[in-house]
What we know:
Distance between the termini: 52 Å
Helix content: 55-70%
Radius of gyration: 22 Å
Number of strands: 0
Mean pLDDT: 83
Amino acid sequence: MTSRQLPLQPTPQPPPTAAAVPWGVVAGLSTMALLWPLTGLTGVLGTGAPRAFVVIGITAVVWIGVVGLGRVPRPVLTLTLTGVAYGLVATTLGLLVPVLAGFGGPGGGPAWTIVPALLFDAMWGAIAGLAAAGVQRLRGTVR
């Protein structure tokens, strides 16, 4: 005689949850804030508005490219947090080494400007996140 076996039951799967924020991507992309002082030190992009537009453009292209072409989950939240982290890196750099940040003198400017600057960086991150989500949708890799 054969032994009695219970029919195999499928292993219950946990319910799908929202993907976690990829903090490594946030940290890595926020280091793009270092482009400003590096271009200022080397003089590669000149000065003034042309330099600012090129640095902002390069940053936007890299953020949208990495998140939009990569399989990064939650692109809008990821890049919004990246924008805040970018602002924190830039602010910290400006407070520690104001000359490198382009502020010229000690102190780096009035303290009340930190919160609006972080909100502005978060807004640009969210806009880049929307663009990256659009790229993901076009590629068919929406997460």
